[in-house]
Amino acid sequence: MNDAPVRKIIHVDMDAFYASVEQRDNPELRGLPVAVGGGHRGVVAAASYEARKFGVRSAMPSVTAKRRCPDLIFVKPRFDVYRSVSRQIRDIFADYTDLIEPLSLDEAYLDVSEDRHQLGSARAIAEQIRARIKAETNLTASAGVSYCKFIAKLASDQNKPDGLCVIPPHRGAEFVATLPVKRFHGVGPVTAAKMERLGINTGRTSPPGR
Ligand SMILES: [Mg+2]
């Protein structure tokens, strides 16, 4: 094998980001199905968890969303507010590492291989970051911790919302083997369908029993 040191990567992802910011700032929206975006011919930019229960998803046409959830409340996006929260969370990240790779306003990879504050583990760093995000923004984030970006991103999705999932190197292959290919970063619906036609349904490296 090789002697390259194992990296410690955290993928931090805010939970239903735009929708959660709107529910935070407008208490009358809390507990209700909310979609940010919309407009007459628009699409949903983000859906609250209450809306997701009805099958409302981001990038879905507003008309479809409203059909799935007749009580859906559409809220205009406030990108200036989202950008300012995004700066707040990046300031928190910067306290733990200089190696930050943002993917969007609400998610980023952090390389915490160097344990700057001597917290003892990447799990402890991730928990502290999540706690600070909650304390400083009053919003929740989920985090995935692993030895590469690919698995860290899958892991952050595992226990959402307000969750943490740690996948150590020896569990990487087994974890990926359980997941449908459509969960993988970069595999959209079209690629997933193509892979499924080829008999590739999960991240298992060879078909069961072979
Ligand atoms: Mg998010």
List keywords for this structure.
alpha/beta; binds magnesium ion; MutS, DNA mismatch repair protein, domain I; 3-stranded mixed β-sheet; about 210 residues; 8 helices; 5-stranded mixed β-sheet
How would you summarize the topology of this molecule?
Elements: E1 9-14, H1 17-25, E2 34-37, E3 44-47, H2 49-52, H3 62-68, E4 73-75, H4 79-94, E5 100-104, E6 107-111, H5 122-137, E7 141-146, H6 149-158, E8 164-166, H7 172-177, H8 189-197
Parallel strand pairs: 2-4, 7-8
Antiparallel strand pairs: 1-6, 1-7, 2-3, 5-6
Helix pairs in contact: 4-5
Bound molecules: magnesium ion.
Magnesium ion (MG) is lined by residues 13-14, 17, 106-107.
Short synopsis of the structure:
The chain is 37% helix and 17% strand.
Describe this structure in words.
This protein is of the alpha/beta class and 210 residues long. The chain has a domain at 17-75: MutS, DNA mismatch repair protein, domain I, CATH 3.40.1170. It has eight helices and eight strands, in the order βαββααβαββαβαβαα. The chain has helices at residues 17-25, 49-52, 62-68, 79-94, 122-137, 149-158, 172-177, 189-197; strands at 9-14, 34-37, 44-47, 73-75, 100-104, 107-111, 141-146, 164-166. The strands form two sheets. The protein has a five-stranded mixed sheet with strand order 5-6-1-7-8. Strand 5 and strand 6 form a beta hairpin. Helix 4 (79-94) runs antiparallel to helix 5 (122-137). 31% of the residues are buried. The model has no long low-confidence stretch (mean pLDDT 94). Magnesium ion is lined by residues 13-14, 17, 106-107.
